[in-house]
Amino acid sequence: MPMTLKKLRLHGFNNLTKTLSFNIYDVCYADSAEQREAYIAYIDEAYNAARLTAILTDVAEIIGANILNIAHQDYEPQGASVTMLISEEGIVAENLSNTATPGPLPDAVVAHLDKSHITVHTYPETNPQTGISTFRADIDVSTCGRISPLRALNYLIHALESDIVIMDYRVRGFTRDVTGRKHFIDHNISSIQNYLSKKTKNRYQMVDVNVYQENLFHTKMVIKQFSLDHYLFCVEAKDLSPQEHQRIQKLLRRELTEIFYGRNLGRNLEFMD
Fold first, then answer.
1. Which among 28, 72, 112, 116 is annotated as catalytic?
2. Is 148 a catalytic residue?
3. Among the options 121, 133, 142, 197, which is catalytic?
4. Partner of 152 for a Cys bridge, out of 40, 59, 87, 214, CB 3.0 to 4.6 A?
C-alpha cells in the first residue's frame, strides 16, 4: 500500500502527468445483415462527434479545466474522433482533491491541460458469422497540475452505457518541492476502484492488477446483471424460441468473457455468470 503523503509545497508548477486510459465496450446481438447495418447506424448517430464533444465538455468541467480548442471528425463508413485542448482552472484546481472519493455520475476526443489532453475514439464492428456486434470507445484523459482525471470516471462509465470497462491509471514524471526533493506522485492511491461510486461498484464485477512501485494501476470491470433483452437489436427475447434464446445468450456470454480476459476461449470453457 502506498504511504499517505503530506500536502506538498512545490517549487513552481506541478510537473506530474496523470493519465487515465480505458476501453469501454457495448455488446449487442443483431441477427441479419440489415439488423447489423441498423445497429452500426444507430451507434454512429448516438455517439457521433457532436455527442462526444458534449460528453468531453462535461469531463473538462468535472475535472476543473478550461477548454482552449476543439477539433472533431466523423468517419466513413463509421466511427468518430474529437480533440479538445484544455488548461487548468486556477481557482477550481486549488479546491480540488485527489483523495480517493468518487466523482459524479451522469468518437474521439482529446483535451490539452497546459501539457495534457483528453482523447476519445470509437470503433463499431460486427461479426457476420455470429451476429454479435461490439462497440468500443477508446478514451485517454491526461492532465498536469493539481487536477485528476479520476474525477471523471463515474460520469464516463455511465454516459457510455458500458458492458465492459478496462482501465489503466499512471502517474509519470516528477515534481520538486521547495527543498528540491523529487516527488513521483502527489496523492495516495491503492486502487482505481476507490474512485468509483457505490452505484458503479454494484453494477460491475471487478479485478485489479496494480504495480504500486511503478505508480501503475489497472482495473477490469464487467457488468453483473445479464438480461437478454438489453443485448438484442430489432427483436425481443419473448419472440425467440427456447433454443434460440439459449444459443444467443451463450454467444453473448462468450463475447463478454473473451473481451474481459483478452483471449479467445475454447469450446468447452465455462463462461462468466
1. 116
2. no
3. 121
4. 59
Are 82 and 53 contacting, i.e. CB atoms less than 8 angstroms apart?
yes
For 37, the 3-state DSSP assignment is helix
250: cell is 451463450
Give me the residue label for grid cell 462527434. Answer: 49
What's the pLDDT score for residue 90? 52
* Residue 230 bears catalytic tag: no
Among 133, 144, 148, 187, the one annotated catalytic: 144
pLDDT tens column, 175-209: 888 888 888 888 889 999 999 999 899 999 999 99
Q: Is 183 helix (H, G, I), strand (E, B) or coil?
A: strand
Contact 127, 133 (CB under 8 A): yes
Whether residue 144 lies in the annotated active site: yes
At 72-105, the pLDDT tens digits run 999 988 899 998 887 766 544 444 455 555 655 5
